[in-house]
Amino acid sequence: MEDPRKVVVQYRRMVQEGRLEMAEVMARGLSDRTLAMKPEDRGVDDQSLLVEVVRDLSAILEIREKWTESIGTSKILEKEARRLVKAQNSAGQTIDLEMSKSVRSNDLIQRGRALNGAKKHRRALTCFKRAHKSSPNSLEAVFRPFETLIMSKGNLGSSKKWLPALKRALGEAGPVQMEGEVFVLLPKNHQPHSVEQLLIDLDQWIGSGPPEMVKTWLKTYADDVRRQRDAIARGEQAKNAEMAAAIDKLQVTQDYHEWVGSR
């Protein structure tokens, strides 16, 4: 039998090339073969591979808009991910709990997106709520409920209860920074989030009939993000946290020398 890891590399390359049907066939075949093994016969490596492949398969099915299959595969993923943690604990392996929670959050978000595709919006909101609870730093977990409310109701009239989670996640993501030539927010243990896409989303939410207090906060935050972005572009604000720390250190040194010189 072909090396399973080579199969993973092959079908991921196919996804990048847009050959989604063949990628699905290969991922499903590898998933089915590994699932056919009794759980007690799988080593940690086997279980880790299974979780990886089922996660990929669920995402591929979502891309192909096979919503029901993606949702079902995501449920299998949740079950097998728990088995993986148990196997790792039994083997004495160290688990990064924060990263594990972030991965679980992303899995729930993926299921929520598929549920939205299937027009099961209430269940999608439940997934996003669980995702936020698992990893409060996840921006997507707090953005998706606003998108879902617009999809299901056409407006954000009932968005007030989602505002505290949004505030917290954006607060934890810190200031606007630059990666290369792109403005981003950098939530801990999650992928960078494009500031330009964030501003597009915020403008849409502001125009979608949220309660006045939600609208006011969104506008204030959006204005601050634009101010930070423009300040970085003009060179008036540090591009990233490392540069900001260096500037702060330089300022402290300068203040010290000025104080000594004045004595």
Helical fraction: over 70%
How would a textbook summarize the main sheet? 3 strands, antiparallel
The overall pLDDT average reads 91
From N to C, what is the helix and strand string?
HHHHHHHHEEEHHH
**Range of strand content:** under 5%
Q: Would you tell me the structural class of the helices and strands?
A: mainly alpha
Number of helices: 11
Give the uncertain stretches in residue-range form.
Answer: 245-257, 259-263
- Please report the total strand number as a whole number: 3
Radius of gyration: 22 Å
Fold topology:
Blueprint lengths: L3 H13 L3 H16 L8 H20 L3 H24 L6 H21 L3 H14 L4 H15 L9 H11 L3 E3 L2 E4 L7 E2 H12 L5 H22 L7 H21 L2
Antiparallel strand pairs: 1-2, 2-3
Can you walk through the features of this model?
The chain has helices at 4-16, 20-35, 44-63, 67-90, 97-117, 121-134, 139-153, 163-173, 195-206, 212-233, 241-261, and strands at residues 177-179, 182-185, 193-194. α3 runs parallel beside α5 (97-117). The longest helix is centred in the N-terminal third of the chain and has 24 residues, at 67-90. It has a three-stranded antiparallel beta sheet. It contains eleven helices and three strands; from the N terminus they run ααααααααβββααα. The model is unreliable at 245-257 and 259-263 (pLDDT under 50). Helices cover 72% and strands 3% of the residues. With 263 residues, it is mainly alpha-helical. A hairpin with a 2-residue loop joins β1 (177-179) and β2. The protein starts with a helix and ends with a helix.
